[in-house]
Specification:
This protein is α/β, with parallel strands linked by helices. It is 48% helix and 13% strand. The protein has 48 helices and 30 strands.
Length: 1240
């Protein structure tokens, strides 16, 4: 299909971007490096397709699969924005309007969302309840645990021999290790399209015949390749030392031995078959070196050569021992291991079936089900058993015009099969895949970069190819210095062996970011800061700090940030380019990110050190939540509510601010009985049993009271939790104990409250699951705490907060930052997974230990050795890609920090790696790297800027230096001692005491008057601070010695919770409620129809119908009193009046000294107070006003009532005169108590 561009989007696309956008439909793989605008290209291709004149393609006929929901949302926003821009210049286009309308239902979704859609539309094909829901991780963890427990209990009851052997073989103190193994293998197998088939095949690999030839297996091919890499490294090292020995006078007697070693190793490197390698390795031996004395000037060369030879011997002998020494027993080992592996696989298969059954019973699916059920719907088998698309899949093939896959490098095997089932084939191919294999960093989630690489290596760059690839390499993100540095490093270290891709000139990023020139301090060299852990001074001086390694590195980072922000002597602060203002500005904290491979255990120290230099910092970590004191406290409360016979959580609650028991009080409790549970002691004290044989004399009355009150609360909580949902109960705890408010007042209160809200939200999720009850909730939280599934602190930070961020490299993927500080590069790679009892690999299957329980023997089988080497290389490849992601996050400045154990030895090792010929560092040295610094340091050792490294190693002459590289680096080397400082102990100073000691009378200097004036200064309007801005008329009566029982409202009302009407013992109205109701009737009644009782009753009934008042309320009002009022003299005047106004609100401004007579006029004459109130009734009579105020008070003295309401009526009259401009001629109180009128 040819695209015809409808509107020019004014974008300067590069040639490769244009090809990616306009290439006709085919299987197209776009390899887009970091910052090359792949999302923009993807969006533009979609826009071009839906606006194509040649074919009518709607946006809902395209499937766009993204890696995250955020990416899907961003994609939709970008497409909507692009269509809207097109509409601005082509507003009459019906097609564009249609596409904008269809965008809401477009299939721009994650792979899981698409699979879910397929399942919902085809649930009947797999016999699934259409009312299913997706369970969250909470429920899945608990359910898996339950199923596993049941399965193991069942197996124990059956006394299955093979199962018991498996338990004995892979247990530690209990069977938890085996249970974890079953769960791990289950999770791993689910990344395969057909888990059960893969498991059975992996097991059957061990079921071999006696004439089995190990040399023809995939295991042998893998181990041969690995051995050859290591042997080549040994050969190169011996060859180099031999060359040096032959050139140094006085070491000739070493040459023959080294030459013989070299020939033996060279012969090994030329062998390609298993049997030949086995035979040669088993015969391998090394002659003893000559002990002839040498001159002092060549001793160093001799020692170095001897050390290298020892290391080579050790390496080759370990291969001999680990791989070949027991190779005659391979068949026997496999036969013995086979039953155990078969039992393990059957356990996993059985667990899968039981777990699936439990999920069906509950009507739930977990995340792996989503992909596998979708796969089941979209696949079928032909007569020969081959996988073919189902009818449902063919329907999707016909429907989708093109399928776009974003972040293709992160796809797994199951997702690959799903996409293959729904994508068209041959000439109609319609798969558009975009990604960057160098940024594939999710192998731990079973993503398979090999899928991308397979296509990358097989697809053609020819324009007419059916399977085509296009490379996007122009980077629009980073400065030239960062791009050139990244290219240099990865050209040195990334290869097919480690990194799974050969980083050549073709893979290099090209700098295309447009940064304006600036005269200020901007950009600059990539900095490498290395700290030597070795301490020179063994004696620590008095008051000198003892620093751990993380602290030292954190202090260096803090100093670097301070320099960037504030500058240093002779260097101004760093400037960064602001795209919004299109100008340079000083760097801010929010421009800086500290990236780490793993943040656990490092972040608290970094935060502390940065804070010590007043650098605001926020750490986005996924660990440490359960260590927060507020979370620990609430979980302890929940634990004792579930089971109070737990001393540790009970004491934690008693000591917490919730109960506030002192340590002395806890000692008194324990002294009642040293062996009893604390809860039993509390009960004894509460019951105060005089006949008890335990003495309570030492327990005071106040402590007894505290215990009694605590037990009442605890018992109340234990009753409530039985019927309240857990989330509601947790919130009830927060509010009843006041702990939520208390924790908010502590330092970091906002974060602490957010942590408690997070616990509440977790409980809310738990309530939606099929699990119920407090015990299960606590059980789940404990599982989370003990596993790697810690929640991390609640997020309280906005996007634009001006703070330095600390995050893992994984979390930074897809983001960019002006300044990146990559820290912890000296931290060792985590290779702990290689030590598990059974290793798993997609292609190589299972790699178990050989276990013989009777003989108490356990050692790795050759299969495990193979998997260990393969997994190590894959792990290192992943680590290298993580390093690439970290480097490419930086826009303007990249700073690297790391620590080494011994700077001299480490730099010598780096320089040795750099000394070998070739464009790249040797593969064996890359495989033997322990951390990121080993790669970076070795690469810089052969770079012109790496002189400080070469100087320390004293290897300047022997290196193969790179010529013609444009990257610029600045290498700084520090000692640990450089970061030590003498801590000043702060003494508590009694400042007030010091001041009181001063005899100020003795001081009569020139500044005494000024000091006195400043310290004794009084605010001129101090009294105004105490005057309210607004008064109600009722409040005036209360404030100024006049009490109003009827309708005065206190400034601070006591909180009184009313009982609902249906709970009241006596149903009736209070005097105040009756007064309010009477006012309401008089406000709404029609005064033209009040001549009889029936007329008033009819009007009141109408108010009931209109729901102004309730029927039962009417019974408490004497309607006869209302009739008497209207039949009275004032009532008659009111009925005959020209205009009647009822319930009239008013606001009036008066001078403050009118109420507060003692205030001086000069200062407070302009200070105003607002008076507010509501006039019950007034009417006009001959151009003047008559004011009436209704009262329902009990009256025994008319003079008292007049005094009581004198101020109120005065301000009512004054307000009316001001409001209307007319004079108030009469002011009355009408007393309903005795139906009398009082003139004021």
């Amino acid at each position: 299909m040819n695209f015809s561009k409808v509107i020019d989007m004014n974008t300067n696309w590069t040639e490769s971007q244009r090809e990616a956008i306009f290439t006709p439909k085919c299987n197209l793989l776009v390899s887009a490096g970091a910052g090359t605008g792949k999302t923009a290209v993807l969006v533009e291709r979609i826009i071009q397709e839906i606006t194509s004149i040649d074919e009518d393609v709607d946006i809902d006929k395209l499937l766009v699969v993204t890696f995250t929901n955020a990416a899907a949302s961003e994609m939709k926003e970008r497409i909507a924005e692009a269509i809207s821009k097109l509409l601005e210049s082509n507003y009459g286009s019906k097609n564009l309007q249609k596409q904008l309308t269809l965008l809401n239902q477009a299939n721009i979704i994650t792979i899981h969302a698409f699979c879910l859609k397929v399942i919902k539309n085809n649930f009947h094909l797999i016999d699934l309840d259409p009312n299913f829901r997706i369970c969250d991780s909470t429920e899945a963890v608990l359910l898996k645990q339950d199923v596993l427990e049941e399965l193991f209990d069942e197996k124990y009851d059956m006394e299955n021999t093979e199962f018991l052997k498996l338990v004995d073989g892979f247990k530690s103190k209990n069977d938890i290790k085996l249970k974890d193994m079953v769960l791990s293998l289950y999770e791993f197998s689910k990344s395969n399209p057909w888990p059960e088939k893969w498991l059975r095949e992996a097991v059957e690999n061990f079921n071999v015949e006696e004439n089995f030839d190990f040399g023809n297996t995939s295991w042998a091919q893998m181990i041969i390749h690995s051995i050859k890499v290591e042997v080549k490294g040994c050969k190169d090292r011996i060859e180099k030392e031999l060359t040096i020995i032959q050139s140094v006078e006085g070491l000739e007697h070493y040459a023959d031995t080294f030459k013989k070693d070299y020939e033996n190793i060279k012969e090994l490197s030329l062998l390609n078959s298993w049997e030949e390698l086995k035979e040669k390795f088993l015969q391998l031996s090394f002659d003893k070196l000559s002990t002839k004395r040498v001159k002092d000037e060549v001793k160093e060369v001799k020692e170095r050569a001897k050390n290298v030879r020892d290391e080579v011997k050790k390496k080759l002998n370990s291969i001999k021992e680990d791989i070949f020494s027991g190779s005659d027993n391979i068949y026997k080992n496999m036969q013995e291991v086979y039953p155990m592996m078969k039992c393990l696989a059957s356990l996993v298969i059985e667990f899968d079936k039981n777990y699936s059954l439990k999920k069906r019973e509950r009507g739930i699916l977990d995340f792996s089900d989503i992909e596998h059920f979708c796969l089941e719907i979209l696949t079928d088998r032909d007569e020969e058993g081959n996988v073919v698309p189902s009818e449902a899949a063919l329907e999707y093939r016909r429907y989708f015009e093109e399928i776009f896959i974003d972040e293709y490098q992160d796809s797994n095997e199951v997702q690959e099969v799903i996409m293959n089932m729904i994508s068209r084939k041959s000439k109609d191919s319609n798969l558009f895949m975009v990604g960057d294999v160098k940024q594939s960093i999710y192998r731990f989630r079973q993503s398979k970069p090999e899928l991308f690489l397979q296509k990358y290596n097989s697809y053609s760059e020819k324009k007419t190819a059916e399977n085509r690839k296009i490379k996007l390499s122009e980077n629009f993100r980073s400065r030239k210095e960062i791009i050139e540095g990244t290219n240099y490093l990865f050209k040195q270290i990334m290869c097919r062996e480690v990194g799974e891709l050969d980083y050549t000139d073709e893979e290099c990023l090209k700098s295309s970011a447009d940064y304006e020139n600036s005269s200020g301090n901007c950009g600059g060299d990539i900095e490498l800061n290395i700290i030597d852990k070795k301490e020179e001074s063994e004696e620590i001086q008095e008051n000198e700090e003892i620093l751990d390694n993380v602290q030292v590195e954190a202090r260096l980072v803090a100093e670097k940030i301070s320099e960037l922000i504030n500058g240093k002597t002779g260097v101004e602060p760093l400037k960064v380019y602001d795209k919004n203002t299109k100008s340079y500005r000083n760097v801010m904290y929010k421009d800086i990110v500290i990236l780490m491979r793993a943040t656990q255990n490092w972040v608290p120290t970094f935060v502390e050190e940065l804070n010590s230099l007043d650098i605001p910092v926020f750490a986005d970590i996924s660990a440490g939540y359960f260590e927060n004191i507020e979370v620990k406290t609430i979980i302890s409360v929940l634990e004792i509510i579930d089971n109070p016979l737990q001393d540790i959580p009970l004491v934690a609650v008693l000591r917490s601010p919730i109960e506030s028991f002192s340590p002395e009080e806890l000692i008194d409790l324990r002294m009642v009985d040293r062996k009893m549970h604390f809860y039993d002691i509390l009960k004894i004290i509460s019951e105060n049993d005089s006949e008890s044989d335990r003495s309570l004399k030492h327990v005071g009355n106040s402590l007894k009271y505290k215990v009694s009150e605590f037990l009442k609360r605890l018992n109340n909580w234990r009753k409530k939790v039985k019927y309240m949902p857990i989330d509601e109960f947790i919130w009830h705890l927060y509010t009843e104990t006041g702990y939520y408010g208390f924790i908010g007042a502590m330092p970091g209160g906002v974060q602490r409250q957010a942590n408690l809200r997070m616990l509440f939200e977790r409980a809310k999720q738990y309530e939606k699951s099929s699990y119920k009850g407090l015990f299960n909730f606590i059980n789940f939280m404990n599982k989370l705490k003990n596993s790697s599934g810690d929640l991390g602190s609640a997020k309280i930070l906005g996007e634009n907060e001006n703070v330095v961020r600390i995050m893992s490299v994984h979390k930074s993927k897809g983001l960019e930052f002006p300044v990146v500080i990559l820290s912890g590069t000296g931290k060792k790679f985590n290779l702990m997974d290689m030590n598990k009892g059974v290793l798993f690999h997609e292609k190589l299957g299972l790699g178990p230990d050989y276990v013989n329980v009777k003989r108490h023997i356990c050692y790795p089988t050759i299969m495990k050795q193979v998997l260990r080497k393969k997994l190590k290389v894959e792990t290192l490849s992943e680590e290298m890609r993580i390093l690439y992601v970290a480097f490419t996050r930086a826009k303007e400045k990249l700073i690297i920090t790391g620590m080494v154990d011994n700077i001299e030895k480490t730099t010598q090792r780096w320089c040795e790696c750099a000394s070998y010929k070739g464009d790249k560092l040797p593969e064996y040295s890359l495989i033997s790297a322990r951390n990121f610094l080993d790669w970076i340091g070795a690469a810089l050792a052969k770079h012109p800027c790496g002189k400080p490294i070469r100087e320390i190693s004293k290897s300047e002459d022997n290196l193969n230096l790179v010529i013609g590289d444009n990257s610029t680096w600045k290498v700084n080397i520090y000692k640990k001692d450089d970061f030590r400082s003498v801590s000043q102990e702060k003494e508590d100073v009694d400042i007030l005491g010091k001041i009181e000691e001063l005899n100020l009378a003795e001081y009569d200097g020139q500044y005494m008057d000024k000091v006195d004036r400043r310290l004794n200064w009084n605010y001129k309007y101090e009294e105004a601070c105490k005057i309210p801005a607004k008064f109600s008329v009722s409040e005036l009566k209360r404030r100024f010695d006049l009490n109003d029982i009827e309708d005065s409202v206190n400034l601070v009302e006591p909180v009184q919770l009313k009982k609902p009407l249906f709970l009241r013992e006596k149903k009736g109205m209070t005097a105040a409620e009756r007064g309010t109701l009477l006012h309401l009737i008089l406000q709404h009644i029609d005064i033209k129809k009040v001549n009889s009782y029936d007329e008033i009753k009819e009007q009141v009934d109408r108010l009931v119908q209109r729901e102004f008042i309730r029927e039962e309320e009417v019974k408490s009002i004497h309607l006869g009193k209302i009739l008497k009022f209207f039949n009275s003299e004032i009532g008659s005047r009111m009925k005959e009046a020209e205009n009647v106004y009822r319930e009239t609100p008013f606001y009036m401004e008066i001078e403050s000294n009118e109420l507060y007579k003692e205030l001086p006029d000069k200062i407070y004459k302009d200070e105003k107070i607002i008076i507010q109130g509501i006039v019950d009734c007034y009417f006009e009579e001959n151009g003047e006003l008559v004011l009436i105020d209704y009262k329902t008070d009990y009256v025994d003295d008319i003079d008292n009532i007049k005094d009581k309401y004198k101020i109120q009526i005065y301000y009512y009259a004054r307000a009316l005169e001001k409001l209307t401009g007319k004079q108030v001629k009469n002011k009355y109180l009408y007393l309903f108590f005795n139906n009398s009128l009082v003139e004021m």
